[in-house]
Amino acid sequence: MYAAGQLVHTLPEGEIIWGVAVLADEVFVLRPKGLDDIEVYDAVTYRLLRCLTVPDAHGFADMTICRRCRCLYIVDPIAACIHRLSLHGESTRWPVNDKPYSVSVTGTLNVLVTCPSVRQIKEFSWCDGKLLRVLSVPDEVTSPWHAVQLAGGQFVVCHGEADDPVHRVCVISPDGRHIVHSNGGRPGPDTGQYSVPRHLAVDDGGSVFVVDVNNRRVTLLSPTLEHVRQVVSPDNLKWWPRRLCLDVESRRLYVVDNQWKEGGLSAGRVVVFGV
Fold this sequence. Notes:
The protein is mainly beta and 275 residues long. The chain has strands at residues 6-10, 19-23, 26-30, 38-42, 48-52, 62-66, 71-76, 81-86, 91-95, 102-105, 111-115, 120-124, 131-136, 144-149, 155-159, 167-172, 179-185, 197-202, 208-212, 217-221, 227-232, 240-247, 252-261, 264-274. Helix content is 0%, strand content 52%.
C-alpha cells in the first residue's frame, strides 16, 4: 500500500515539460522542441547525463517508455504522429491521422494513443506503427485525456475539460463500449471530485494514480476506482501538475509541475516523491 508522497528531489527548473519517463537508472524529461529535446538524468544522483533529440518533430504533448523494447514514444500533436526513439537515437515515426494528446504502452507492447477531439483510443503495433484498432469511448466520456490498458484488457481513462459537466476517471470495457467503474462526477475540490484529471499511472496491481490539474494534487485509487488517499497535495507543488510517471521498483513517483503564467505554460520542473 502506498503512503502519502514524501518529497525526495526536484529536478532543475527550466522550460515547460511535456513528459517524464523512467527506465532502470535513468530519468527522461521531455522539454519543448529544440536542439536538446529530452534531458536524461541519473535516477540516483539526479545528475544530468546527456540529451537526446527527436528528429523531424514539430511539437510535443506526452511521452512514455517501453522497458522491454528500450525505446521512447513521443506524441507530436502538430505533425499528428508518434515518434519512436531508441535510447541510441534512432528514430522512426508513424501517422495518427487525428490530433494525439497522450500515449501509453500495453502489456503486449503495443502503443495506445488518446485523441480527445474525436474521443478515440487508437492502438498501434510497437514494431512498425501499424494501426490495429480504433476504440470510440462511451458518449458520456467527454474529452478523454489519457488511457492505460489494464491487465484484464479493460482501459482506465481520465476525462473532463474545464467547461465539461463531468470530470472522472473510468474503467471501460475492452471493447470500449461500457463503463465498468468510475470515480468523480461534477468538478470540484472535495474528495471524490476532480477538476481536469489529465494523466494517469497504473501499477502492477491495478492501483491508479491520477493527476488532478486544477486541484493541484495527485490522487490514488484502488483497482475498482475507490478513493484511497491523496498522495501529492498542493503544499508539495509550486505550480500545476500535468503529467506523471510511476517507477514501481524504486517506489518513486515523478510529477511534472508546470508554471501557468499570462495565459500559457512558461516553465517546468519534475518533483520526485517516494510512495
